[in-house]
Design goal:
With 506 residues, this protein is of the alpha+beta class. Helix content is 28%, strand content 26%. The chain contains ten helices and 23 strands. The N terminus is likely disordered.
Length: 506
Amino acid sequence: MTPTLLYRLYAILFIGSLFFVSCGSDDSEEIITKVEGTEITNFSFLKIKNPSLDFDVNLEVNDNMISGKLPYGAEIENLIATFDHNGLSLLLNNDPQISGTTYNDFSKIVNYTVKTTDGREKGYNVDVTYFTGLPIVYINTNELPIDSKEDYRAGFASVYGGRNFNNIAASEIEIRGRGNSTWYFHPKKAYQMKFGDKTELLGMPKDKKWIFLAEHSDKTLIRNKIAFEMGYLSNLDWTPQSVFSEVFVNNKYNGTYNVTQKVEESSNRVNLGDTGYLLEIDQLDRMEPDDVFFYTSEFLINIKEPEVAYESYEYNYVKNLINEFETVLNGSQFKDYTNGYAKYIDVDSFIDWYLISEITKNVDSKDYSSIFLNVIPGGKIKMGPLWDFDLAFGNVNYADSQFPEGFWVKDHKWYARLFQDPVFVAKVKYRFLYFKNNQNVILNKMDYYANYLKYAQKENDDRWDVIGNYAWPNPVVYNTYEEEVAHLKNWYIKRMNWLDTAFKGL
């Protein structure tokens, strides 16, 4: 074989080997295996999949918690979720979930599970807040305004309870305005609503009448609620329950309200039986035409319950009892345990009502109004229940109760005299230590309710534009809700410190 032929043979063999190597390379391409995991990487409700939404809602994924907020009007009980995960499947109660397809009810916390081929799994809690997270009360008066404190407007009320409360179907109600300064000075009105029959409302015991506190002067919205929390810590017989709620009137959002039990005689409220009296220290210019009242040497006393006629036996009984107590209190033997003031009053209730009113420095509690007392014939006069604390905790610009320093309710004519008895003073000082020891409990309640209302206060402000603007009778104005709450907390801390020193000096 010639060298030329041999060369050509080697060339052919070389080229052929390259061809076979190339073919072998194609047959041995690397196979990429998917690595499964248990992670949900995003979770959302898209407008294109959910007609009730005006925009996409993207939830936050944080470890095994997925959370977010849905706008008002979203059909939370019938939503399609869009999601990504790196597992084999996503299950809800062992039912496969298909992104962008499967409907679910998100009104409660929904528990998903991501599973892998090899048996690994991870659970996720999807916690969706609807609107502000509060229950919603709908009031419908057929588009007629609620514009009177005297005359009820007929209508219907229903409740969307959300997670924590029962729904109420549309029920016949009557509703009217309420309040004094709050009714005349503020655009957001307070109401009294009355069912035809006793009805459980927002988890509170059945009754007919319910109060909707607007809390317009109190930008934190929580002063009344915190005073009630102090009442729950006390020995007072009864303190109103209340629940924050969103309120719509004739299909228009009207803001966040503190829906409360009414201060009235009832087996579920001020339980006075068939013969007891609910009384209020009040002012003549606040009396209604059908109010029945009497005077002592110090105060006007309005007989809230029962209905009595002037100069009737029932009227004269309570009038004489209160005046007799006041006469003995101002007499020379008032300290006598047997025949002095202690014969007439339940001292423990007088002390607890005083301390809560003094700690909060409630402007009206010195001598003006919402100073309730009650008595059952044959028993002793008791102070309470607590009421009307939106202008407490320094939230007033026309009185010294603005400041955390200084006594206030101690100057109430009855209490000024009681403080002249060393035995009473000693009991007050001892009992104050109980409230001082619970100071952090109250501060934690302030934080809890402020956080609970984090969405509600924003919607309420969008409706009424209160944050950063003066509302009668605010002594200070802050630009954020958080600053308003901080001011409340700081005022309370300073107040407790001042009282701690002041009581020790008595």
